[in-house]
Write a structure and sequence with these properties.
Elements lengths: L4 E4 L5 H10 L4 E3 L5 H9 L3 E2 L3 H7 L2 E4 L4 H9 L4 H4 L5 E4 L5 H13 L3 E4 L2 E2 L1 H7 L2 E6 L2 H14 E8 L3 H29 L4 H9 L8 H9 L9 H16 L6 H15 L11 H8 L1 E2 L6 E2 L2
Parallel strand pairs: 1-2, 1-4, 2-3, 4-5, 5-6, 8-9
Antiparallel strand pairs: 7-8, 10-11
Helix pairs in contact: 1-7, 4-6, 9-12, 9-13, 9-14, 10-11, 12-13
């Protein structure tokens, strides 16, 4: 694949993803997103930094967006100088964020009328996966467009699943996040309860990771909690957004999601306590505050 790639959204996930494209020899043009520093860093690795989105679109037949919400993706596609107005016929637009499937289908239809293909290709694997190029990527959309950009996806991920027509990638990602985020909500309840009942937190996490209720995330999540490391890899507010999108998706087919709704309540409480910008492992603070304990390395510690 020799086509120049435009990369929009060089945040905590997007910057290392774009860096992997550069390391694998792809030509990349990017934009300043919220801070100038990520663009400067990518520029030192060989990326061009466009002055505007329309400038980026003028030189890039493939455009990848890694943005936090459907609203931002819609602005890139439908806004002034966006993909719909300034993109070239025959190009491909790829949404690698977690977006509303209904919005994805709408955008794909609008772009298709202009001769522009769209793929939804959301990612899972966290910041580490983005850095190491080991993301899992769920793709929805036309097979020929996927074949065209597959080499770029392979530079960023190790497992690529074509899930079906437009929107299928975003549906799959929301289902994945239902499982992952509900599991985190239960872990956040269980650990403070165990400490409150006198268990050693380090031993408790080791024991739970070896039990029938284990997930492969318990050791890493547990260690971050023990070390009180709450800097965001996946923020509470974004998790809350994804669970709301899952509920919306289910409502389209008149389905209630009682377990997902219960997990969403925990994320809502966390946001009310000011934890929006912290990692999802900070959910443990909700129950720590209720029980007057902290889950940390060493002896169980009562809260103030």
């Amino acid at each position: 694949m020799t086509e120049r790639i435009g990369f929009v959204g060089i945040g905590v996930m997007g910057q290392p993803m774009a860096a992997n494209l550069l390391r694998k020899g792809f030509a990349v043009t990017t934009l300043v997103h919220r801070r100038r520093e990520p663009a400067r860093q990518l520029e030192t690795q060989g990326a061009r930094v466009a002055a505007s989105l329309s400038d980026l679109l003028a030189e890039c037949p493939v455009v990848i967006a890694c943005l936090p919400s459907s609203a931002e993706v819609e602005e890139v596609v439908l806004g002034q100088g966006g993909v719909l107005a300034s993109g070239r016929a025959g190009s491909v637009f790829v949404d690698m964020g977690t977006s509303r499937p209904a919005s994805t289908r709408m955008l794909a239809e609008r772009l298709r009328a202009r001769g522009i293909a769209m793929l939804d290709a959301p990612i899972t694997g966290g910041v580490r996966g983005a850095r190491e190029g080991t993301l899992t990527i769920y793709v929805g959309g036309p097979e020929d467009a996927l074949a065209r950009i597959r080499p770029a996806l392979e530079a960023m991920g190790r497992a690529i699943f074509h899930m079906g027509a437009t929107g299928a990638g975003h549906v799959t990602k929301l289902l994945n996040n239902m499982l992952s985020l509900a599991s985190m909500a239960v872990l956040a309840e269980a650990l403070p309860l165990g400490v409150r009942l006198g268990l050693d937190p380090t031993q408790l996490i080791t024991a739970l990771a070896a039990g029938s209720g284990a997930t492969n995330a318990i050791p890493s999540r547990g260690q971050r909690i023990l070390s009180r490391e709450f800097a965001p890899a996946f923020r509470v507010d974004l998790a809350h957004k994804d669970l709301r999108l899952a509920e919306e998706m289910a409502q389209e087919v008149r389905l209630a999601l009682p377990v997902t709704s219960a997990a969403l309540l925990t994320y809502t409480i966390a946001r009310a306590l000011g934890l929006d910008g912290e990692d999802t492992v900070a959910l443990v603070k909700v129950w720590e505050r209720m029980l007057g304990v902290e889950v940390r390395e060493g002896r169980p510690r009562s809260g103030s």
